[in-house]
Amino acid sequence: MTAESAATLAARVPDGACIALAPDYSGCSIATILALAARGARELHLVAVPQLGFQGDVLIGAGCVGIVEAAAVSLGEQGAAPRFQAALRAGTIEMRDATCPAIHAALQAAEKGAPFMPLRGVIGSDLVPNRPDWKVIDNPFGVDDPVLVVPALAPDVALLHAPMADREGNVWIGIRRELMLMAHAARRTLVTVEEIVDGRLLDDPALAAGTIPALYVEAVACVPAGARPNGLFGRYPPDRAALAAYAEMARTEEGFAAWLGRQLATPEAVGA
Amino acid sequence: MTAESAATLAARVPDGACIALAPDYSGCSIATILALAARGARELHLVAVPQLGFQGDVLIGAGCVGIVEAAAVSLGEQGAAPRFQAALRAGTIEMRDATCPAIHAALQAAEKGAPFMPLRGVIGSDLVPNRPDWKVIDNPFGVDDPVLVVPALAPDVALLHAPMADREGNVWIGIRRELMLMAHAARRTLVTVEEIVDGRLLDDPALAAGTIPALYVEAVACVPAGARPNGLFGRYPPDRAALAAYAEMARTEEGFAAWLGRQLATPEAVGA
Amino acid sequence: MSARLEELLVVAIAGMLDGLGHVAVGAASPIPGAAALLARERSGGRLRVSLLGSERHSAFTDGGRELFDCAGQGRIDAFFLGGAQIDGEANINLVGVGDYPRSKVRFPGSFGSAYMYFVVPRVILFALEHSRRNLVPRVDFVSAPGSSPPNVYRPGGPHALVTGKAIFEFDRARRRFRLCSVHPGHDVDEVRAETGFDFDLAPEVPSTPEPDAVSLALVRGSVGAAIAETYPGFARRVLGIGG
Amino acid sequence: MSARLEELLVVAIAGMLDGLGHVAVGAASPIPGAAALLARERSGGRLRVSLLGSERHSAFTDGGRELFDCAGQGRIDAFFLGGAQIDGEANINLVGVGDYPRSKVRFPGSFGSAYMYFVVPRVILFALEHSRRNLVPRVDFVSAPGSSPPNVYRPGGPHALVTGKAIFEFDRARRRFRLCSVHPGHDVDEVRAETGFDFDLAPEVPSTPEPDAVSLALVRGSVGAAIAETYPGFARRVLGIGG
């Protein structure tokens, strides 16, 4: 595997790509998100697995996003996602509202090579009429039993950050198996990690159980603190002060521009 | 959790129950299988996940089985499953032939609480006309695009053997995630393990990734060597000589009876 | 020692969880979380509690989908939902005020509500705010409906609505809320004035009982210490626990 | 050093895997397994090989379903299937001889064939036996069909049939096998006599080439050592490797 960086990973994401992104509490490759902003990516289609936080707001603020598909978008404790809200008001992004298990089901359909997946519930929600790509069919095993079906969703790229990878490209994600689902469902998976470890993760029976095999992984870049200011499970907590500062600055377009300019001037500031 | 043994686990399996069983290379609770034979369980419906080996043949030979649902039944290296073959010839069991991913899909539907699951392929196989519980529908997202759908399959009991559990009832299964699927899909999960460990498996991030939470587990019995003469991943290889001896003796009903009688006389013989 | 409103709510909600097997609590829900932990203590540990966002009180190992799969399997008996808007038929809106998609006010989104509301038998709606702003005649966007036609698979649905002023039960047959109790310091007239939808009255509408001393001690003791792992700010500010 | 039949087959099959990205090999398949490992060595490691039953050469971490999911994702380029019966339209039977379900002879079952045959682009049928017993006019039970109507989703299907006597390619448009080469020591007439179905002939039907020296050395060297992990008996008996 050639030496990769957040910038080389970002270069592998074409404009217009559909990108699966993890929730803030899981594995977010903020370093690559900033690199995408730096190169001025355009018209990305973000798929939240299943909700979107800081990384989505940054990409939206940087003008990289055309479509957002999510069960929710917010900064969590830091409140509303300001650039998402502004883009919605300005009409510059298309929002595809979903519900968490519908996104999981659509990704699992792609994981299985199945054309669609049925999901109980949801009928009668206003989500349904606003999602022309969803349908309600009769359960073929029932009588007068309507059931929602969602089409398979295979993102072009799964982008994630994880604690460690080995030199083969196997990536340890522990119990954060939404990252496994993302890697299985997406055509290509790009990963930043805290560290590249010696040995082979699959050779350790305990670690193997939480490892995305290299088979699914196109490229790995070693970017310590690559999730900051988000946290990374088992490694570091979120930097609440930095996230609150973002939430404050990003309330205006100018404030966001200043925040992003500072990040891009000193990328290591994000990891500070 | 009260003190359990293979016999108390077997007592928790009512006659007529639908039981999910793992392949020989995964985690088979042979100790509980023998206890089921000892108590003369009747009319069990075996669901192979997805193929059935030694444990199924023993239950069939002991007259415990009414229905077998499997993608394949054999003793692997030791050849055909003799009691399965004899029961088929005698017409004493109902065979529901399947294909591996159809069983996985049906269990995943149960895992998700979905009424069914679509599966590509299979159309044109003689499996389809012989499975009146399967249907071919039009892909609701396609045009003239037939696709197989299989109904959700929620076994009454998942029966498995694993390397270790903790005192809360969390069970470590490593990468053998068909055991996880079984536990999620089945209404009740009964487990034998090699050892009960101190501490909490979920507190170790590496072990947690391969752990079935106690939430899904009804009872755990500590039965060292509980998978023998099968192997157990990471612990011991299959006892090929013992399995070959079984295959030879089980060619006749009398031979099987003699084999079983010997097992039940000295249960620890199985673990020898 | 008199109870704070939050403590009263914790104890009242815990009472709705007695006898259940497994309660799950979503993110950003300190009061329901504390209620679930209190109910667990009172059950002698028989009640299983899954607190999203907790390391200690969450046992999921299959990623983000497991909460929903687990609910779909029928393994979750009670769950909590909020609603930026809630209406008299228990429809909830987590998406926005005004004409979707050009909402005047946009909330985060529906999360898992459109599923959990259907499959969890006892969904408790929780909103500290109690005003005509959030308790409306008709939600602007139905994230999840309060009821469904009889042919729609729906083992679950709304059980109660707990606010900062009162507790309502939901009558699924009548598709209406029934006011069951009013918290100390409030009365039925005030609740009626501050509620944007019509509702029934229980034959008697008592005051929501003050927490019993044992429960209150638990809330301020072991339950508070446990909830502090996930909600340190809440534990400190409301229960006076921790730094 | 002259090659054994198994070695010839390993090298011939490896040639069918050149340029692919990922080959998976099911259980109880030492010759296809060795062929895949040989192709991997010749690719400089670019070919990924998943050998079921191997610890070292299998990278799956999602349980028994992952092989099938992975194939459904389009990530497996070639796979091997056998058949207790194979017919001239490449239908395969892994279930039984005679009228199902009261088969006269019962085999283990269809395994994953009814799926893999549809979704893996290059499925190689492999049967050491070459006789009218297993190569039949029409299989008694279709575990997996060799071809499908045009409206059936089918990115995959049969590519070739490799036996102990010959190699056929499958022409998906004509739904017929075409004899491509006959192994040393056999001839077209014998193949015709021992095959229960009609087939086409390639313009020329050469002898299956003897393994080149480099490949043969690999088979007897590093490839043999690698396959010995999963198939020690095969490696010892056929390749003379190990105890």
Question: How would you describe this protein?
Answer:
The complex is a heterotetramer, with 2 copies of chain A (272 residues) and 2 copies of chain C (243 residues). With 272 residues, chain A is α/β, with parallel strands linked by helices. Chain A folds into 2 domains: 6-98 and 155-270, 3-Layer(aba) Sandwich (Glutaconate Coenzyme A-transferase), CATH 3.40.1080; 119-151, no CATH class. Helices cover 29% and strands 24% of the residues of chain A. Chain A is built from 9 helices and 14 strands. Chain A has helices at 6-11, 30-38, 54-61, 82-90, 100-112, 178-185, 205-208, 240-249, 253-265, and strands at residues 18-21, 44-48, 51-52, 65-70, 72-73, 94-97, 116-119, 135-138, 146-151, 157-166, 171-172, 188-197, 211-212, 219-222. In chain A, the strands form 3 sheets. In chain A, strands 1, 2, 4, 6, 10, 11, 12, 13 and 14 form a 9-stranded mixed beta sheet that branches. A 3-stranded antiparallel beta sheet of chain A has the order 7-9-8, with helices on one face. In chain A, a hairpin with a 7-residue loop joins strand 8 and strand 9. The mean pLDDT of chain A is 96. With 243 residues, chain C is of the alpha/beta class. Chain C has one domain: 3-Layer(aba) Sandwich (Glutaconate Coenzyme A-transferase). In chain C, strands 3-8-10-11-12-13 form a 6-stranded mixed beta sheet, with helices on one face. In chain C, strands 5-4-9 form a 3-stranded mixed beta sheet, with no helix packed on it. In chain C, strands 1-2 form a two-stranded parallel sheet. In chain C, a hairpin with a 4-residue loop joins strand 11 (166-171) and strand 12. The mean pLDDT of chain C is 95. The interface between B and D is large, with 49 and 42 residues.
